[in-house]
Structures are given as C-alpha cells and as structure tokens.
Design goal:
Largest interface: A-B, 18 and 18 residues
CATH topology of one domain in chain A: SH3 type barrels
Strand order of the largest sheet of chain A: 6-5-4-3-7
Distance between the termini of chain A: 39 Å
Oligomer: homodimer
Number of helices of chain A: 8
CATH class of one domain in chain A: Mainly Beta
Structural class of chain A: alpha+beta
CATH architecture of one domain in chain A: Roll
Mean pLDDT of chain A: 94
Low-confidence stretches of chain A: none
Amino acid sequence: MYSLSEENYLKAIFHLQEESKDAVSTNAIAERMDTKASSVTDMVKKLSEKSLVVYIKYQGVHLTEEGRLVAVKVIRKHRLWEVFLVDKLNFSWDQVHDIAEQLEHIQSEKLIDKLDTFLGQPKFDPHGDPIPDKQGNFSQTHNKVLSDLRVTNIGICVGVKESEEEFLQYLSRHDIGIGSQITVLNKEEYDGSMLVEIAGKELFISVEIANNIYIN
Amino acid sequence: MYSLSEENYLKAIFHLQEESKDAVSTNAIAERMDTKASSVTDMVKKLSEKSLVVYIKYQGVHLTEEGRLVAVKVIRKHRLWEVFLVDKLNFSWDQVHDIAEQLEHIQSEKLIDKLDTFLGQPKFDPHGDPIPDKQGNFSQTHNKVLSDLRVTNIGICVGVKESEEEFLQYLSRHDIGIGSQITVLNKEEYDGSMLVEIAGKELFISVEIANNIYIN
DNA sequence: TCAAATTTTTAGACAAGCCTAAAAAATAAT
DNA sequence: ATTATTTTTTAGGCTTGTCTAAAAATTTGA
C-alpha cells in the first residue's frame, strides 16, 4: 500500500502535529526523522499528490483525514507489537522501540486483528501510551504529570511522555515503572525539582524528569 | 546488515541449490523470484563482491559458507514466525506464508532467541519443514513420501514438500494435516495414483499430490 | 561441425529516496 | 524599511534495484 518511507513520514508528521497544533514545518520533520530538509520537501510533495497531506509551499504541512488514518494505523501496530514484545517475549520496556519500529511496517490487517485478540485487546502500550482502535480512535490521553503534584501528594505512574532509551533506563534503575506509587516528600518551588519516595527509597528528581512521567 | 533483496536472493539460491545439487543458473533464480535474468546477473555480481556467492560468468552460482549462513538464518526466522502465526495467533497453515515472508526480514538476534524460547524451541514449522538451529544446522530432513507406500501400508503425515497456498487448501479441504493417519487402500501401479483412507473417508489421490506429502 | 535456439550478459534507462550546493522566500534585526 | 539571518525550495547527482533491447556465449541438433 504505502512505502516504508511514506509511513515513517506520516507517523512523524502525526506526532509533530500533536505537539504543535498548527502546520508542521519542513525543518521540524527533518530534525525528527534525522534527514535533510530537501529530502522532506521531496517526500512532502509526493504525499501531497497522494492526498495524504495538505502542503503549501513555505508554510508547512498537515495530515488529511486519509493521512491521519494511515499514520494512526502504523502507530496502532507499533504499540501492539510493543505489548507483544514486553508481555509475551519478556523484553524490558527500554529494549522494544527499535524492534517495534520494524514490525510496525508489516502489512496484514488480519495479523493485527489476531495479534490484538491474542494480547487481550490492550488499551495502552508498555510506556503507557494509548493504543488506538481499528477505526483510529484513541480511548483517552494522559494529562497529569509528576511535576503537577504538590508536597505530600501521592501519584501512580501510568505512562511516560518521552520514550528515549536513556530515560527509560534511568527509570528502571530507580525502580520506576507503570503502576509505581510516587510520594512527593519535598518540592523546590524555584526550579520545580522534587524529593520523592518510590518503592521505599528516596530519590531526587529534576523538573525535566518530573515533566515526563504521567501519573493519576 | 544485508538488504531485503539480498536476503531474498540468498534464500532463493539456497532452495534451488537443495533441489539441484550443482551450480544454480541465472534463469532458475529469475523464474523463482519472478524477476528478469538481467536483474539476477546484476545482483549476483553484487553478492559475489560481498563473498556471499561464488559466481562464474555463464556458469551459475553457489553459496559460500557465509552466504549459506545468511540464507539459513532467514529461513530459521521465516519458519519460527510461521509457528508463531499458527500456534499462537491461530492462523491456518495456508495463510501464513506471505506474512512470514515479511517477518523473516526483521533484524534482531535477541528477538529470534526470545521468540524461539516463547514457542518452546520447535523443530518443525507448520508445514513440517525443519527449523535450523542458531548455528544453521538442520536436525533432520524428511525422505519418505506418500507415493512410496504400498497397498495396506499406513503412514503419518509429517510434512509437505510444496507449500503453495492452493495445495495446502486442497489438503485442508480433505482433512489432511500434520499428524493425519493415511492408509493406502489401493494403488494404480500404472500412474502411481492411489485410493487412501483419511479420517474415516476415502480419497483418490494423484501421484503429483502423493509425491508432495512427507510421511513416517 | 556448424547453424539454430537458448541462455546469459551488457548497455542504457528509470523510479524511489536520499544527498549537497545554490537560489528563493520568509522572518528577524537594525 | 531595508539588511541580515534563517528556512525552505530547487537543481542536479548518487545508490539500489529494477527493466528492455541488443550483444555475446553456450548448448542443441541436423
């Protein structure tokens, strides 16, 4: 149906669109995909001809309904495969991204349906990101992050905003995972850094980190 | 490591080599891969430069030790994924080939190790083909086919030589699968066709079919 | 054995996807 | 408002893997 490259561009545009609201710039795509701006221009024209994005010269792009659907389907596949890797094959959550990045391009509706059933129709991936349904709808999205908590508040980690390997390994090292209970013992209002208790141990956390941990 | 195309060529050459023993011809590869002979010549030169095949102009190719290993690794992945699709996702054996054809190119040693463990280190895929181990060794290979049986002999289906979808569907329709008990009721020595009993039902089978069913 | 048929290779072209370098447009700064 | 800077696009080129058409080598067969 669509090439590996096309799918990757659509996915990148989808994610950038989520962050920024308005049209996505050529440079932003290039940076995210670790490619050159000129390559992005080429591809964006191609996607535009296929009615997957709306592109106006010098003004960036946004996905069409069709383009959004393609992107969301890839994301659905990615996240289902991540669940498989962690739940069934016992990978840790910081090891699965690169493999899922490959698996997400396997073409077969039936495969994904059956995988979904096999996994028990999960609603979130191992990083806490929501898994869209077949129609491309996201059930819900996280909004509260650790840095929103006040002193003495208690939260449960339900996901992470950032999925970079280093960050995930940092969390693993300090026994932070989905379901972890986090108590705010102290908070420095000046820089937002906080002292928290996790799994019986105290830990000092910077705002950068606290901003990337979703809690309920 | 190696491109999708390279892997497919190596796999094709491996299979052709199994059938024919001596050097594999350009045309044979082209036919098997549904491509043109000129494309094969190009690729074969490339593989030769990478020391994956030995290529002598106008005389065909054969795999080097390294090339064989690459091919066998792809085959191992293909067959393990087929087991996953049938055993875990409940695909029928005639539906898995095209999907496994994609999955076999996923790059990750660790993934295959873990998949192998998850599946219980199977030795045969759903078609009865042997799954090579990590080192590239095949445990054993089938040798007796249904057409070798005499009247009143009883055999157990342990695999199929041909994995074409149509053939597999024919087998499914007549309740022939791995483990099926087959009794030869009558055999026409002239053309090798036979009347057999399978799952309590009588069935007339041509030599072409009987040649493609491995039994023990 | 030598012409005919077949197989294989070469030569040149093309699409996808990427790149560099330079030009054009948009944005920021004085 | 008009430079200066940044962003984006264009132009042209490269690699991979494919193709067609023609040339060369091999095999077949009379």
